[in-house]
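Readers outside the structure-tokenisation community will struggle with the description of the input data as it stands. What matters is that the chain and its backbone geometry are given together, residue for residue. For illustration, here is how one protein appears when written out as sequence plus structure tokens:

…
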Amino acid sequence: MSITLTTWSLEQTSPDDLRPARVPEGDDITVRRAEVPSPEFSRFLYTAVGGDVHWGDRLPLTYAQWKEIAEKPGAEVWVAYDRGTPAGYVEFDPQDDGVVEIVYFGLIAAFRGRGIGGHLLTEGIRRAWDLAERWPDREPTKRVWLHTCSLDGPHAMANYERRGFRLFDTKVETAEEGETPGPWPGAQV
């Protein structure tokens, strides 16, 4: 079935653009970097978070391709944990000239609606801005950007804007709507 797909590109051009979210109260939420590149863990996060929102672009990748993405210098995955259980993640793709793209961000369905997303995005943006401190061969970050689309969760765009991202491009196209790869039957959505 053909659908109209809108893609919005947003950016920050200074660390001062970040408007932090509050830390969720009452929960033991931590955000940690996955310091050991792991194609298996990256694929798990990708499918667990994106399974119900039409993420499918990476599903055909081979193990070697997942490994290459995970091991790219400056590529990082930051994971939100709720009492030790992965709740969501943010993934960076370091680009030339001090640019960092947030290529994936989201929560597993069971963890949505509790304020974890704003907190995770805040921490992810902070880590994108200080990426060169962990990767000395990189020049300091000058721009952090991302894109979201009309297939993403209903609160995605508002979360990005509340964190200080500004719209710089909009594309509207006709696309074929594919099946979501998950969640599997019986999963909480």
